[in-house]
Design brief:
heterodimer; A: 115 residues; mainly beta; globular; B: 120 residues; 4-stranded antiparallel sheet; 0% helix; 46% strand
Chain lengths: 115, 120
Amino acid sequence: AQSVTQPDIHITVSEGASLELRCNYSYGATPYLFWYVQSPGQGLQLLLKYFSGDTLVQGIKGFEAEFKRSQSSFNLRKPSVHWSDAAEYFCAVGLSNFGNEKLTFGTGTRLTIIP
Amino acid sequence: GAGVSQSPRYKVAKRGQDVALRCDPISGHVSLFWYQQALGQGPEFLTYFQNEAQLDKSGLPSDRFFAERPEGSVSTLKIQRTQQEDSAVYLCASSLEQGEARGKGQETQYFGPGTRLLVL
């Protein structure tokens, strides 16, 4: 069965510092990979997605992620964080079950930004 | 256009009560998903509709959970005889197309704000 691991439950970074959130997946084929962000009381907003092609994916709000097949990873990065980036971040994998792209999510990483 | 909307946003139920949660997907979206998000966890898949057909209900935790989408648009998730372990945020998502549209940028799931259910 597919699974997603986000090893960092909580990360604290200073405003303006760089950020990397880790995501590892377990799946037998090339997965479809996503990063979502969830602010308190809000639904999930898609940051970026990887289906195929270029392994470095650009997303909204200055985020990017790199798919590394050899490491089964899809880490999220941002060169300089803003206070508004404080939120919960979820990595997800989509199954290749034709016609049903239900998502399997990691447990999330909570990001705190300090001045 | 409008995004996915859900109602109510908050629901408090006494144990044993029935509840109904509504999801209005983005207009024209074929696929609709329900997820359950327990406190401190990531969302977990419950069920999936393509138009009015419920193609996958493998994630429904018990036969107390029932979902429908009779006209292929609005969906309702019903929980009968609620239990304390049903307390969670219930998220609805919709996407334009699946399957043949794979890789054409149409598979993205757009999520609603969720319904927070508290069972006392």
